[in-house]
Amino acid sequence: MSAVLRIAPVFLVLFGVVVAIMVQNPQFTRPPVLLGLVRFAAPLMLLAVGELFVLVAGEFDLSIGSLVTVVVAIAAGVGNGDEDKTWWLVPALLGLGIVVGLVNGIVTTQLAVPSFITTLGTMLILSGAVLYWTGGAVLGYVPDNLRAFGRGAFTGIPWLERLPYAVLVMVVFVAMATWLRHGTNFGYQLVAAGANPRAAALSGVNVARVRIFAFVLSALFAVVAGIVLGGIVGVSPQAGRGYEFQAISAAVLGGVVLGGGRGAVVPAAAGALALQAIFTWLNLLGVADPVRQAFQGAIIIGAVALSSLFSYSARRRSS
């Protein structure tokens, strides 16, 4: 029951914001329009779920936003509208994600560099590489069959009318993440590594390996998010800018504890959807972007404070 109480607020926030959007713009009561909101939120939902693995392990990953930018830049610059390149471009991008995740994980666990510093360095390296390659300008064009992941949809569906591919991709990967986090031995080891690394190691958990795998998962989810985002918004030299902080905000809003040891996949995804819904609502109200950023900061502080309050209450009850 206590676990339900901890994760319930994010669903209440999501419900309240969606109702407010529908009141502000009745068009959002139509299923295809509401699914459009979920489509735009899909990249952030994927990033939040990927970030969850790292946060539950007791680490941070600040490189995911820059990795999204790299994915979009490579898809456009290398793909350059050639659909025949997609069949090898997607595996190559996933391979790049694995390499980035391994570097982050190995440097953090084997060289004892704090993950905040490691992934901050990776973020700057990736951002600098994209800026050097593109010169800050748009290069090429994402192939249409690759853009379909973000823009395509099944049509003619009763009641829904359109079912975006981006929503299906998000659902599949969230389902996979739910199984990994809650239905496998890795998921339990992840929680143990984040809650008490020393005790986990003494019980036979390879903490370093678990954390490295968490970084790899985070990077892979960032690659998928980049592919989807490239289809939604097109080519931009700053496509993933700020997404790392939005993903952490969403995960914390969904009940993930900074410091490790607790976090569930579906609430984290719901936190991302709630955050996107809040941004949509603020746009409908005509709120300026600087105010929106300040509001995001307030959400982070409030969510962390609420999480700390729940953790303190749980410790008092257990003692």
Automatic annotation (TrEMBL):
Transmembrane regions: 6-23, 35-56, 62-79, 86-107, 119-142, 163-180, 212-235, 247-274, 294-314
Coiled coil segments of this chain: none
Cellular location(s): Cell membrane
Stored CDD domains: TM_PBP1_transp_AraH_like (cd06579)
Keyword list, A-Z: Cell inner membrane, Cell membrane, Membrane, Transmembrane, Transmembrane helix, Transport
Main location: membrane
Pfam short name (any one): BPD_transp_2
Mode of membrane association: Multi-pass membrane protein
Summary of subunit composition and partner proteins: The complex is composed of two ATP-binding proteins (LsrA), two transmembrane proteins (LsrC and LsrD) and a solute-binding protein (LsrB).
Role this protein plays: Part of the ABC transporter complex LsrABCD involved in autoinducer 2 (AI-2) import. Probably responsible for the translocation of the substrate across the membrane.
PANTHER family in the record: ABC TRANSPORTER PERMEASE PROTEIN YPHD-RELATED-RELATED (PTHR32196), AUTOINDUCER 2 IMPORT SYSTEM PERMEASE PROTEIN LSRD (PTHR32196:SF71)
Name used for this protein in its record: Autoinducer 2 import system permease protein LsrD
